[in-house]
Design a protein that fits this description.
Length: about 190
């Protein structure tokens, strides 16, 4: 039994309709439609379309799998101390996850003056923390503005150290609630 060999191609609005006057003609050397014959032409065209659509579907399935893997690289924790991991094709490092982390440090009784505080990041940076910053949370802002600042002392892949720094001449008993921090790495 002979079979039609499909070729993955799509020709829109072109499936031959056998006419009442068409003679029955099968595949043979010298037959119409490049040797396929009038009777086989619509079947060939539909087989080619099916092969084309199957080929496209296989590509789509593969691409969907890649997108699902990529989507799985986006992770995070929306909380007071949280993080967001974002996959990026970095020009120098290739595929990495940028990590943005944030949080708050509110020691009971507020910040002490000229004191270091260590914050453990919600998620350890696999490679490096490249930047960190902090800002005061001060319910007495009108009274204490400019008298206490928070500096970044150091940071690693697992934590950051911040220091409350009393500016000269400020009264040490003024309350400062705590501070908010942010860190970025990969």
């Amino acid at each position: 039994m002979a079979t039609l060999i499909d070729a993955a191609e799509f020709t829109s609005n072109e499936v031959y309709q056998i006419q009442a006057t068409d003679p029955v003609e099968g595949a043979a050397s010298g037959a119409s439609f490049s040797g396929t014959g009038i009777s086989n032409q619509p079947h060939q065209q539909l087989a080619n379309r099916t092969a084309f659509l199957k080929q496209r579907q296989d590509v789509n399935i593969s691409n969907i799998g890649v997108l699902q893997l990529f989507q799985g690289l986006f992770t995070g924790l929306m909380a007071q101390n949280g993080y967001l991991k974002i996959p990026v094709a970095d020009i120098n490092k290739g595929l990495v996850q940028y990590i943005i982390q944030w949080g708050a440090m509110f020691p009971g009784g507020g910040l002490d003056n000229d004191t270091s505080y260590t914050v453990t990041w919600p998620a350890a940076f696999p490679n490096a923390c490249v930047w960190s910053s902090a800002t005061l949370s001060n319910s007495q802002a009108l009274r204490n503005t400019g008298q206490l600042i928070v500096d970044v002392v150091s940071f690693t892949t697992i934590s950051g150290t911040f220091r409350s720094d009393l500016i000269g001449g400020a009264a040490p008993q003024l309350p400062n609630d705590g501070f908010y921090w942010m860190a970025i790495g990969f």
